[in-house]
UniProtKB/TrEMBL annotation:
Pfam families recorded: Ribosomal_L22 (PF00237)
Protein name listed in UniProt: Large ribosomal subunit protein uL22
Lineage: Bacteria, Bacillati, Bacillota, Clostridia, Lachnospirales
Amino acid composition bias (Basic residues), ranges on this chain: 1-14
UniProt-listed InterPro entries: Ribosomal_uL22, Ribosomal_uL22_bac/chlpt-type, Ribosomal_uL22_bac/org-type, Ribosomal_uL22_CS, Ribosomal_uL22_sf
CDD domains registered for this protein in UniProt: Ribosomal_L22
Length: 128
């Protein structure tokens, strides 16, 4: 357990906070695996190239991640005063979110479970 008053602990925790611009979407209706297919393609690329890739990628996840990337670019421009031409994708990852469980009726009175998976997607930008 950390020593000190609660305000000291909070101050120490906020001192080493990541100041890079980012955007996050919670409970996106796609599985982590399907989101990672798209994230692996754009990781490390500059934002203009990544937006071009996401625009013409046929996967559903690419449309969601494109909106997320545009939000991260707007955050960098408005909150941090960064130039959008110098930005690149430093980190992007998808984490598991709670799964919705549904029932599918089957033959002879049985029921199969359908799992509708969700994920949390995060995009972090940085300047070159």
């Amino acid at each position: 357990m950390a020593k000190g008053h609660r305000s000291q602990i909070k101050r120490a925790r906020n001192a080493n906070k990541d100041t890079r611009p980012s955007a996050k979407i919670s409970y996106a209706r796609m599985s982590v695996q399907k989101a990672c297919y798209v994230l692996d393609v754009i990781r490390g690329k500059d934002v203009q190239t990544a937006l071009g890739i996401l625009t013409y990628n046929p996967r559903y996840a690419s449309s969601v991640i494109k909106k997320l990337l545009e939000s991260a670019i707007a955050n960098a421009e408005n909150n941090n005063g960064m130039n959008p031409e110098n930005l690149y994708i430093a980190e992007c990852y998808a984490n598991k979110a709670p799964t919705m469980k549904r029932i599918k009726p089957r033959a002879q009175g049985r029921a199969y479970r359908i799992e509708k998976r969700n994920c949390h997607v995060t995009v972090v930008l940085d300047e070159r």
